[in-house]
Design a protein that fits this description.
This protein has 169 residues and is an alpha+beta fold. The chain has five helices and eight strands, in the order ααββββββαββαα. The chain starts with 9 loop residues before the first helix and ends in a 5-residue tail after the last helix.
Length: 169
């Protein structure tokens, strides 16, 4: 189902604010290059290892980021990485490097996600540098704390591993 920002019910308009409201509502951004998708509790939004070609924004609800962990024994399990809330963006790394997604994303509850075609978004941002700057600044503003949290988590696991193998002495 494809909807323009003008077609959204009033209850769905509020979370779409700021930079992405300006992009999606801009007369030069093609209305058929983004759509809303609804997800139920636990439903897969994005699969690790796949390439979707889209950027995603949580419009309503929340989502859980999970990564696959494969042990030396061959056992594999999904490890929760973080939770994302309204306004959070994901899929942005694959948008820029055209690599498969590095994690899977699941709906924590009922969720509405805005899916924006990456090629259309990048072309638009190339034509509209001032708006492009604010979009990239928003990306960095969201990425910085995620990267810091990931680094802290890696350091904790490293410390745990050193202790477990008695290398901390």
């Amino acid at each position: 189902m494809t909807q323009s920002i003008a077609d959204l019910p009033p209850t769905l308009e509020a979370p779409i604010t700021g930079t992405f409201a300006a992009v999606l509502g801009h007369p030069d951004f093609p209305r058929d290059r983004w759509h809303l998708r609804s997800f139920k509790v636990g439903e897969l939004i994005l699969r690790e290892g796949e390439q979707s070609g889209h950027l995603y924004i949580i419009q309503r609800g929340s989502a859980r980021v999970e990564g696959s962990v494969k042990l030396q024994s061959g056992r594999q399990f999904q490890a929760g990485v973080t939770n994302l809330g309204v306004g959070s963006v994901f899929g942005e790394l694959a948008l820029f490097d055209q690599q498969p997604h590095s994690a899977s994303i699941f709906a924590n509850g009922e969720a509405t996600i805005i899916a924006i075609e990456g090629v259309a978004l990048l072309a638009f941002l190339e034509r509209h540098h001032e708006l492009g700057y604010t979009v990239f600044k928003d990306f960095l503003t969201q990425l910085a704390p995620r990267l810091r949290a990931t680094s802290a988590r890696v350091y904790k696991f490293l410390a745990w591993g050193l202790k477990a193998y008695h290398l901390d002495q």
